[in-house]
Protein 1
Amino acid sequence: MRAGAHKGDTMEDKKILVIEDEKPIADILKYGFEKEGFQVQCAYTGSEGFVMAGKNPPNLVLLDWMLPDINGVDVCRMLAEQYRIPIIMLTARGSVEDKLYGLESGADDYITKPFDLREVVARVRTILRRFDKARGLPEDTPLVCGHLTVAEQEHSVYKHDELLNLTPKEYELLICFLKHPRQVFTRTALLDRIWGYDFLGDTRTVDIHVQRIRKKAGLEGMLVTVFGVGYKYVPQ
Ligand code: CA
């Protein structure tokens, strides 16, 4: 499989964390993966990597075996215990025993140095696809409703390629309709759902918000009023 052969997949914006103390190698990996549309962050020690994985969870970790502070295998074990992130071990070692040891500690794959960058990219793509498949739809699979695309991790909605400027309540209301096509919501139900039971406003708040999202998202004719009841989203 050649690197770049899967450009149409959902690899763009996938985050890779490289934990590697040899800066030239980390740089090559960063360069190679960024060129393929991945976001890459580098850590040069095991503890730094472990902290980074917690702060900004990556979709996959490329982990060097020989690190200056904590052994890569131990980092691997720590990551595997704490997070569900696929891990590929990078190592100069190549013996079967080492490989088994690495895999037992929670690594998903194993790449021997010196590596071919294209092979690393291809292996990463394979593991990410396998991982996404194993847990069903990946969290960041966008919800596509006609001309609208919802990126829930970003809390954003795009109309074609244009980012909609929505308030948090408008966003929640829009998502509620898009996720429940054809379901009728009463104004009271929407108030409870989006604003919470304690909200002191009245149902006109819902009407105003519905009018705004209709306009902003171009849903005239799709976000319809059910007379005397409420609203529903009817995809076209
Ligand atoms: Ca090293």
Note: Confidence is low (pLDDT under 50) at residues 1-9.
Protein 2
Amino acid sequence: MRMSAHLVAPDAAPAEAAAFERVHVQVGGHRIGRDTFTVIAGPCSVRCFDQTLRVAKAVEQAGATMLRGGAYKPRTDPRSFQGLAELGLAMLLDAKAATGLMIVTELLDVRDLELVLTVADIVQVGARNMQNTALLRELGRAGCPVLLKRGFAATIDETIGAAEYIRCEGNHDVILCERGIRTFESRYRFSLDLTAVPIMQERSGLPVLVDPSHAPGRRDLVLRLSKAAAAVGADGLIVEVDESPDQALSDGPQQLRSDTFADYMREVRRVAHGEGRAL
Ligand code: PEP
Ligand code: MN
């Protein structure tokens, strides 16, 4: 059988679909995307009122845009610390009232949505839940800003597909986050895929943040990855900071110390400003 010419793979690459126009997400008085550089900082998990408040004050004074902190933790071992749930949310609310910082916190279970929304300005969907389609649809209906973290075995298209679950319910306030994917490399926790940042921006139009903490799993590499993220055009960072990380109940080794956070911010600000971003 003769093959017709058009079935033979052409040498030229197929035309790329048009890139999406970049949008921003407005959260309270803050705009995420395009011209700004957003820094969301705070502990992996909250564990007491006083400490949460002191960390919140430290990150606020250093110029962070929002406070992060987990009250519901997706852990590998079901017997390990799972977060303080409602009590943890109360700690975040307390810190929010004292500092005025907006709050980013993870929702694990759709049954806790109403409660989480009493505190969260942005609801975080963790890497392990990226394709929990029931959760995504419910967040789509809730209409709140959502920080959707890329699953550690998810492709770029799967990540954008997950964002579509939220968007097709009418909620367009979705922010993507690259936090490292699983590769053959075992010297560190995850491979931070910085190539994905501009590609996710152009393929979705959405703001893309980078989490520089979970990939290295070591605090001494966090600043370098943060500056690399700013240089590659990320719209901001979500970074783990604690007062005494050695006593943290989750992710201690990768958390920055709050008493060094102002120095960290100075370095990050320099690169973000160099990229024309306001911070
Ligand atoms: C976290 O932000 O603390 C977290 C659990 O992140 P991830 O879902 O990316 O592992
Ligand atoms: Mn963590």
Note: The two ends are 64 Å apart (CA to CA).
